[in-house]
Amino acid sequence: MMGIFQKTITSELKPPKLPRLGFIDYLGLALACLLAYWQIATRSDANQGQSFLFILILASLNAHFLLNQLKSIETLLQKQRTLTLFIPSFAALSTLVIQALSRSYYSGRALLLFIIFWTIWMLASRLLYQHFMPPLKLAIIHPASFVAELERESKIELSYLSVPPKSFEGIDFVVIDPASNYSKDWLQWLAHADIYGVRSLSAPLVIETLTRRIPINMLKGEWAFEILAGRNSYLGWKRLFDLLGVVLLSPFLLLLAAFISIAIYLDDPGTVFFWQERCGKKGKPFQMLKFRTMRENAEINGSAFAEENDPRVTKLGKWLRKTRMDEIPQFWNVLRGDMSIIGPRPEQIGFAAQFAQDIPLYELRHNVKPGITGWAQVMQGYAAGTDETKVKLCYDFYYVKHVSLGLDLRIIFQTFQTILTFFGAR
């Protein structure tokens, strides 16, 4: 059976796309090394060999980093390595090597030339690769309940398989539902596909990687336990980073807060600050502090969802919300330990209780401290009802599962992008 199957499909197989990206990376490393060697060779120096050896050490460390990244699911699906991961990692590697060389002779010009060329090569190759490579072709075994989630994605092309095909032509990956009971024929076909380089990926993982959110309609068993197990050692360091951030930013924030307070009072006389009870980590309530952006006593008849063009908001309040500056007083909550700089936004107590009743596993978002800004805020913006809150919750679950320094840095970058350019989700 396998011999017949092998003859049928061998001629149909195409070279995989991803090794091309690996070849481009290693070609760039080789050219960077040659450029550095040329710089070293043009100088009559007895320590040429030692200088070039240091360059090779840095290149080898980067090659090891690239090899590991080529195997990651995110690289396979996104067709590019995340630049927010590459830049800090390469900077750290370069810093470590330079620090190690601080007491040894090396050519600073050659090392700088290597770093500049390699950084430009990586950035340019990622942009070109993303632009010119066609979408990934994903095959789905029909019927499947998750099709709607993938059909909204422009990065991929979908095909639907009702019977096991005789070749793998036009298939980069097969998306499977871990909860489905596939027939013997399908399981045999999937095994052959894996042998010939067509990997099978679980639908939840594909959706999570492509959309950067975890759909709550697929949040079952194993996936839910992964979120629960998402607590990691970074959460301890995260508190330290929060305190350092507050201390370093406090002189600037205090000065800015003074000007904003005066402007709020002049725009709409009344209280400057707004206290409201919100739901914190593990569901514990706390008093969150904000600059007042609505008219005095705007919520005297009860709380309501914030909207993009909320008539209760003052003229200055609209600008403060647009730039996120109404959140500045919450650094006090961070200092107290009620909040973190980065995390899911704290919900009002009444709304949180309502969502917990309407949305399964809603309270999983309380596994981490709420934040001044978060993944849902930079990816979606305002949630003006239960349906939009469900989408926001998908991003919150993604953050809870993947909370890390790299993700926090990305959120900070996108938050500053919104503040400085008024572009992006708010």
Reported for the largest beta sheet, the result is: 4 strands, parallel
Lateral arrangement of strands in the main beta sheet: 2-1-3-4
Taken as a percent bin, the fraction of beta residues is 5-15%
Order of helices and strands: HHHHHHEHEEHEHHHEEHHEHEHHH
User: What is Rg?
Assistant: 26 Å
List the helices and strands and how they pair.
Blueprint: H1 2-10, H2 18-41, H3 48-70, H4 73-78, H5 83-100, H6 108-132, E1 136-141, H7 147-151, E2 156-161, E3 173-176, H8 184-195, E4 199-202, H9 203-211, H10 221-228, H11 234-267, E5 273-279, E6 285-291, H12 315-322, H13 330-336, E7 340-342, H14 349-358, E8 371-373, H15 375-379, H16 386-402, H17 405-421
Parallel strand pairs: 1-2, 1-3, 3-4, 7-8
Antiparallel strand pairs: 5-6
Helix pairs in contact: 2-3, 2-6, 3-5, 5-6
Explained architecture:
With 426 residues, the protein is of the alpha/beta class. The chain has 3 domains: 113 residues, no CATH class; 75 residues, 3-Layer(aba) Sandwich (Rossmann fold); 188 residues, no CATH class. Helix content is 56%, strand content 9%. The strands form 3 sheets. Strands 2-1-3-4 form a 4-stranded parallel β-sheet. It has a two-stranded antiparallel sheet with strand order 5-6. α14 links the parallel β7 and β8. α2 runs antiparallel to α3, α2 packs antiparallel against α6 and α3 packs antiparallel against α5.
Short key terms for the protein model shown above:
426 residues, alpha/beta, Rossmann fold, 3 domains, 4-stranded parallel beta sheet, two-stranded antiparallel ribbon, 17 helices, 8 strands, 56% helix, flat
